[in-house]
Amino acid sequence: MQSGQTPCVVIAGRPNVGKSTLFNRLVGRRQAIVSDMPGVTRDYKEGEARLGGRLIRIVDTAGLEEAAPDTVFGRMRASSESAIGQADLILFCIDARAGVTPADRHFAQFLRRQNRPVLLIANKAEGSAAQTEVYESFALGLGTPLAVSAEHGEGLSHLMREIADRLKGDEKDAPDEAGLSLQDRDASDEAAEAPIKTGPLHLAIVGRPNAGKSTLVNALLGAERMITGPEPGLTRDSISVQFRDQKGDVQLVDTAGMRKKARVEEKLERISVSASLEALKMAEVVVLVIDALLGVHEQDLQIARLIEREGRACVIALNKWDAVADRAATMKAVSDRLEISLAQMKGIPVITFSALTGAGINKLMPAVRQVHDIWNCRVSTGELNRWFEGALERHAPPLVDGRRLKLRYMTQAKARPPTFILFGTRAEQVPEAYRRYLVNGLREAFYLPGVPIRLQTRGTKNPFARDSQ
């Protein structure tokens, strides 16, 4: 580990020994999907924990299995080995109830060859029944095992102390409670008066299964971070990674494919979709990946409408564009479908690319940054009301119950997404058609394409009307 870097602890072991449960315990929240079904974790997942007053990066990996490199399990093992290669400490988990298996012996031998410190964890060791098997794990040659039960929380405090002790370095290299090493404190004090930098842009990649989301993430990162292949549904959990584009940091989340709700039957898929929805809600910008060969399906539109309801900015990404025969006809069909079925996000940007070859990938992040700026846009009250007066002159408010609405002025309440408040007598009775007229006018006049626009109303109270009792 280099000076100043956050130490990395990687949890490894064969499938279904409780690695994800232990990961959730260490990071302090249910961040990884947990299931009794073996092989749930596929891409390695990262989280942060503070142990012994020090920030530590915890990595949950897929189960180690012997498999051909071109199979799903072979790709999962390659992903796990990639994570192990950057570890400062490996937590090798075995199932204390099952005892030491031939697979455990095989992978213990593999880990010994990695020349990295290993801490042997005998998980599922609740009660006295598993104690015999815990002692048998000495035979793996990885030192004294720590008996824990991640599911029941037993032995975790001892484990956390042991991890902190194993990662202790020189005091000058160890971060203090603020996450800064001693040699960095002077630099941080000098920078204390500098402007506070904004956080990373939160970007989620969503879409139907097999649309190419993980391949797109790998293309953006320039590395094989996510497991990809022709099999649909490879990604099961939401995986968050960071990278930098030309304008700054980006927190990127790859999500599991979302099928129609009626077709989601397995419990594991329901959990995966739930994690995808949570990632969508936490994002600022959402990239909706669509298979250009299949066109825009109803499920794609349902996901887009969900993005709009959550108030997120959106970019449509047409993948596999290199395989499209008639590009002009395909683009026209997509544009017509979006204009008819997604009018509430009129002008949404559409990017064409091939995640597999990388052609057109460079167009995506500029479009994401642009729509993010629009999503954060603010309009001055004076400029807004000058437009509003013109809008009233061009198309006066309709009669409601034989009486004309008196709309007085408008202001922007907030951005992210742009939200406007309309004030006037009985403004809450403005018909939906007139609301759409105002929203479309706002979108066109102040250049707000591709983002949701919220229009709220505030009626004025008649001071001469007696309150009904």
Automatic annotation (TrEMBL):
Range of residues in the leader sequence: none
Molecular function GO labels: hydrolase activity
InterPro entries for the chain: G_ENGA, GTP-bd, GTPase_Der, KH_dom-like, KH_dom-like_a/b, P-loop_NTPase, Small_GTP-bd
Sequence positions that bind GTP 1: 13-20, 60-64, 123-126
One Pfam short name: MMR_HSR1
SUPFAM superfamilies in UniProt: P-loop containing nucleoside triphosphate hydrolases (SSF52540)
PANTHER family in UniProt: GTPASE DER (PTHR43834)
Function: GTPase that plays an essential role in the late steps of ribosome biogenesis.
Subunit structure: Associates with the 50S ribosomal subunit.
Protein name: GTPase Der
Species for this entry: Candidatus Kirkpatrickella diaphorinae
Gene expressing this chain: der
